[in-house]
Amino acid sequence: MTALRSGGAGFTSDRDDGSLLVRLDLSIILLSIGMLCIGLVTVYSATRGVVNPEVDVANTSFIERQALFAGVGVLLAAFVSAVDYRKTRVLVPVIYALTVALLIGLFFFGSTFNNATSWYSFGFVTLQPSEFGKLTIIVALSSWFSSVNNREGLPFLNVMLGLGIAGVLAGLVLLQPDFGTVMVYAAIVAGIVVVAGIAIRHVFAVLGLVAAAIWLMVQRDFVEGYQIERFTAFVDPENADRWNVDQSEIAIGRGGITGQGLFQGTQNNSSLVPEKETDFIFSVLGEELGFVGGATLLALYALLLLRIWRVAHLAEDEYGRLICVGVFSMFLFQAFQAVGMNMGMMPVTGIPLPLISFGGSSMLTSLMGLGLVENVHAHRLR
User: Fold this and answer.
1) For residue 150, what are the β-bridge partners?
2) N or C: the chain end with fewer CB closer than 10 Å?
């Protein structure tokens, strides 16, 4: 007998009929495709250059690379969703060790950009291991906490060991330095730990340790002055790094309700907004498509997050549930931070807007994360 549950967009069968395509959450696929299309158009608008149809030819190198990574990401997401996540759990230590090795290798073979050694360069392609580290933390902590949890909650020692698992990766990323990615790591850890069942008294102990670590880094000059200034620019009108945020706010403000029109943004076309294809891509969308375009994108994020949360609710085991929570936390924090940064409400950290910002590693990570969620949904009754 087949049980039907309301799935928001039609009904989803809970029967295991052996067909992977039938067992996937179609709404997650459609929402992702819609956001990918918005991202590709926005990246093209941000990088095409000021084009005179009679003289110039639009720059298509960025959109071509973004489309390539989107295609590869879709294939990887399909692969990740196909093999039962519980059967590959034994590979988590291998994935973790490989991620650590890649992060350490950056200090010997990595490329430096904007004072951070965060990339491996392979010709015209660069890969950022810290992006893939997000998925490593998700599967590693989900595996750990689901194996040590009990009916009375998480023992404090096991909480600290879990934080140590994430802390090794976060420490290596801090040394690059890349504080934005570490913030995403922290959001993922917080989401997983809370849902896994950490006691309230342990929350205060962990927060105290985090505060002490931050204080120690500042006192020991581990954090450079320019990094602090950049981080606090959004609350300091006199900060020189405030220029980037100001230009982004001007662009969004000029968009008004319906925007200046696709490819017609004055701030975008005059190149006044810095890093407009990556950090400040939401300002391009806001200027050219206005409040309507920005609100539509945020609505798509909200629907996607609701569907991921639904899959977490449907998961038949703790491991799958925590994987979905980790992906949920990653998308939620990155979208909130990236949009808030563009509007002058959050620090400038270089966190990409998932599925929208230009960047191959971010694109692959986001799509594989969604593949993990689809995996949990497809194999929940097996």
Assistant:
1) 153
2) N
Who wins on pLDDT, 236 or 302?
Answer: 302
Q: Can you tell me the distance from the alpha carbon of 86 to that of 336, in angstroms, rounded to the nearest whole number?
A: 31
Q: Per this entry, what is the length of the chain?
A: 382
CA distances from 343 to 14, 22, 205, 308, 377 (A): 42, 40, 33, 26, 35
Distance between the two ends of the chain, CA-based, in angstroms?
16
- What are the boundaries of each domain within the chain? 21-378
Tokens 């059967």, residue located: 87
Pairwise CA distance, residues 155 & 148, whole Å: 8
Helices 318-342 and 360-378: angle between axes, nearest 10 degrees: 150
Mean pLDDT within 171-189: 91
Long-range contacts of 351-355 (CB under 8 A, 24+ apart): 351/180, 351/181, 351/183, 351/184, 351/279, 352/278, 352/279, 353/39, 353/281, 353/282, 354/35, 354/330, 355/32, 355/35, 355/36, 355/39
Kind and range of the H or E run holding 120: strand 116-122
Give CA–CA dist 320/85, Å, rounded.
8
Percent helix / strand / coil, the chain, rounded to 5: 65, 5, 30
Nearest to 137 by CA among 311, 323, 318, 307: 323
pLDDT tens, residue by residue, 62-76: 999 999 999 999 999
Q: HSE on the CB side for 375, CA within 13 Å?
A: 29
Give me 263's structure tokens: 């490819």
* DSSP string of 54-78, one letter each residue: TT-----HHHHHHHHHHHHHHHHHH
Q: The pTM is what?
A: 0.89
Nearest-Å Rg of the Cα atoms of the chain is 21
DSSP state of 222: -
